[in-house]
């Protein structure tokens, strides 16, 4: 007899967990202990579903590393008891949270699927039911009694993506997320089709490990035409600053003004870690292809290759806590740890 997968549903907040009060028109969170009553379709699923909710569900705009840890701890505490996990999360910062957790969990052997919705679960035209039901199905996929997926995914509007490859592209369409530099892990149509060739393969010989400590002393500096010396100098002189995500043009290009390169060189020599990521939705940093990126490469700026800003933030927070030398940091950051870069 086929084993029923046990799935833990973790509700953090967000539109998917809301239901409309038709007297007032306001959205309010509903009790997830009554989930089966609100979504009777879940009774058809062959999986066993348990639920847990944040005591005080939050809007995803208020997510921070403390909330990430709360989600991670919830999963870690229940890791042995369940076969898969589904995290319900507001869509605005879902890619940030899911990307960060991909670095916090090392040697993950079970699926953690993030999902949400653009409309509340009680709305007539909601996308919440399909996103939730299919996410649970995906989290419960097994082959020979073992989970098919062993990574963190993000499911939205018929597609499952590697979470640390995603970014939110649209605030109004149901197809809110994209993964420009990596193909979907699975697609839901008449059949649920899994692309087994692109799934992340964790080391089955190693036990799962949760990294709890993240460094928050970072910032994102987006380059724009007209950025001034005073602005760059002011931002990079922030007290206790340890890391910077430098969002550059195209394939990693930035102004090659002497003042700009001198500031970066001085900060790098003082121990600041600077990572170059592209502002483009798709594509990769390739420092040295153009004269306007050669200087960045020469002074020791780290290449983020085709990593998203969301994943770069999580990876930077994770690695800065390891107290690595500049050379080792550069080598590790430029290496794919969880499938986050090509």
UniProtKB/TrEMBL annotation:
Keywords: Hydrolase. The keyword Hydrolase applies. GO terms for molecular function: asparaginase activity. It is an enzyme of class 3 (hydrolase). Residues 6-196 form the L-asparaginase N-terminal domain. Residues 218-333 form the Asparaginase/glutaminase C-terminal domain. PROSITE patterns: ASN_GLN_ASE_1, ASN_GLN_ASE_3. The active site is at residue 15. Its EC number is 3.5.1.1. This is Type I asparaginase.
